[in-house]
Amino acid sequence: MAEPGVTEGSVSPVFPTVREVLALDPVRHGAPRLVAGETGLDRPVRWVHVAEVPDIATLLGGGELVLTTGIGLPADDAGLRAFIGDLAAVGVSGLVVELGRRYPTEVPRVMAVAAARRGLPLVELRRATPFVRITEAVHALIVDAQLHELRAAEEIHQRFTELSVEGAGAAEVVRQAAALAGCPVVLENLSRQVLAYDPAGENAELLLDGWEQHSRRLRPAGRTAYDSDSGWLVTTVGARGQDWGRLLLRWPARAGLGDGRPVGTPPNRLTILVERAASTLALGRLIRRDAEGLERQLHHTLLTALLDHSRPVDEIALRARALGVPLERRHLVGVMVRLRRDTPAESGAPGEGGPADAAEAGPARLRDLAEAVGQALREAKLTGLTSPVDDQAVGVLLALPEAAAEDRALAAFAAALRRRHGDQPARVLIAAGSGVASPREVRRSLVEARQVAEAARRDSRDLPVFRLPHVGLAGLLHLLRDEPRLQTFVERELGALLAHDAQHPREQLLGTLRAYLEQGRNKSAGAVAAHLSRPAFYERLARIGRILGVDLDSVEACLSLHVALLALDAIRTP
After folding, report:
1. Where residue 504 falls among pLDDT bands split at 50, 70, 90?
2. 18-139: what fold?
């Protein structure tokens, strides 16, 4: 059922087509007969113009339906061909000739041939008809259509203004846009992932099947444009110079010429609709971010104060309670969320962005991660403080009603975050410290969570939440990474190899040693992991043994080297 003020025919253009004009009673009274130009019957008629002079084309602007008796038209074939050519060149919608005064029974064949060649609708009126009745009927139709468009535009503005005031979410905005348009609407992000959609009664699976590939083929020019090949009206969504998505509306091919594509361009009402919907989406995101801005700043202040002891704990607890996050008589759990070390922006992997890309993408990724963490907390119905705590991680302090709820709360939070963080969720690492019963002990839980997160960055397991027992020796080494004796141990075990690699940057042997040790001293598996042939891998191992002065077949020696490698990773972790 159409929404109020939106009729079934509201998807047709503002102006009537030549076909619709021929169906009007005053035109039908003249017994119209189409002589040529059937393919142009769906051209819109912007206005009706009565003309009896051959050079009328110079006074027209395109889109007119020209009415004539032919009394002033040229008498020669060349003149008639030129007359038709001029009308077609200026873009008139069609030519209607009343028979009787100049042409008794039919228009000259040369006119019909010329019109057919140019695809210009040429119509004979075989019965005398007052042109004024035709012009009145067509102009009334145009005015009514324009009034309908104005009313529809007014309803669009009113509807989306209400949605803006109500703070409606993206799904509701998209649903309302689809209801007003009667067409499928899709909201996607810049990675061509669907954020919200409404099929408007069509098959959703067919609509979204292969969406990313299909969307990437749509490259309309400008912020709002129509892709006539696919039938999608596309507008960019964003504000303050930061675009974050596209809103797409599929204009149905109801008025097609048999080739399955829409004719012309969508009505102006639909362009207004998608742009107004896009501005509502952008404004809603800005309002939510601005409203959350001060709250996030306060969260950041409190979390930072808990980590560095810059404010009294009682004051922090008081301010947190005022924010709706009571810390007293609660079970408190510190959590750190970060992206794994193998993300392109951090690793500088070839072809996937180097240091310059990382510098640009890092803050944006951290903002997106912080937003996803906040949404996950709300979705899991958990109470807590959350904010970025450094350049790499987002911290969370969960305030739970009881200790028994800890595991359940962490599992719910992890599941919600993975649903929210759409960019390869396995890359998101969640680490939790031990739960504590007092705000004065919170720092210990937060620091432990941070250390676990750092230690787990190289861990290949995809655990929902990492805890201290999961990181084992790596976690212990992270706790001791600032200890001079650990650093001395690393230099004693690996110093000679590190010096060699520094002098030979094109032949790094540390990676070879790592592959060998991580594969449990299996040389064949190590060669595969290092992407080397077995002879080349064996030769490198022999050199490593000579440089370090150790026997790499010795279990004890390899254990010491492996611990040194883990310690080196802990020391180098930012």
Report:
1. confident
2. 3.40.1390
Q: Give the containing element (helix H, strand E) for 187.
A: strand 185-189
CB 122 within 8 A of CB 97: yes
Whether the CB-CB separation of 255 and 263 falls below 8 Å is answered with: yes
- Ranges of CATH 3.30.70.270 domains, the chain: 311-341+364-469
DSSP 250-286: E---TT--SSSS--S---HHHHHHHHHHHHHHHHHHH
Q: Report whether 129 contacts 27 (CB < 8 A).
A: yes
**Residue 67, CB half-sphere, CA atoms under 13 Å: how many?**
23
CB under 8 Å to 124, separation ≥6 — which residues?
Answer: 32, 33, 35, 96, 97, 98, 99, 106, 107
Quickly tell me which residue has 């750190």 as its tokens: 336
pTM exceeds 0.90, yes or no? no
Matching CATH number, 167-254+264-286, of 1.25.40.10, 3.30.450.30, 3.40.50.2300, 3.90.190.20: 3.30.450.30
The CATH label, of 3.30.1780.10, 1.10.287.500, 3.30.70.270, 3.10.450.50, for the domain at 311-341+364-469 is 3.30.70.270
pLDDT digits (tens, 9 = 90+) for 543-564: 999 999 999 999 998 999 998 9
Supply φ then ψ for residue 13, to 5 degrees: -60, 170
What confidence tens digit (pLDDT) does each residue in 120-166 have?
999 999 998 888 888 888 888 888 777 776 776 777 888 888 877 77
